[in-house]
Amino acid sequence: xxxxxxxxxxxxxxxxxxxxxxxxxxxxxxxxxxxxxxxxxxxxxxxxxxxxxxxxxxxxxxxxxxxxxxxxxxxxxxxxxxxxxxxxxxxxxxxxxxxxxxxxxxxxxxxxxxxxxxxxxxxxxxxxxxxxxxxxxxxxxxxxxxxxxxxxxxxxxxxxxxxxxxxxxxxxxxxxxxxxxxxxxxxxxxxxxxx
Length: 195
Description:
alpha/beta, two-stranded antiparallel ribbon, globular, Nucleotidyltransferase, domain 5, 6 strands, 8 helices, two-stranded parallel sheet
């Protein structure tokens, strides 16, 4: 996680969680994360939940690529340690899904690597979360330069009508059907928040 204030990155949060289990050789090969790194640098899950609780203050805007996944992850982590506060914490935060924004701006496909290429951002190591986060920050800046309407996407998540919005929906998120299109960037009157 990066903390951005007034357009400047003021902090980065990059922690390993020591889950007390050995990583598979495939995960080690893919990420470069080792069991030793988790044992020596890893912190416990409760500490991460507390850190999130302290960072996700009212008025914060969280930006993620495929934000529903990240929101679910954060919510259920908070729910384990702060069951009576988790709903309020996540609902007091604004959530922007850059996949939804990207679908209004470029043809399929819409993975983070596709956004990186579309906006000519320097290639990153896509197997480490902090590197993904730094790439997403650059993508969000590029989206803002391209058309300054990204804040219209706060708490508006698009979903593929073929698959639906999924079984778990947050009441503070507006889920909208967002079919693929083959026309590049949509006119501002046709973007997801206004459609």
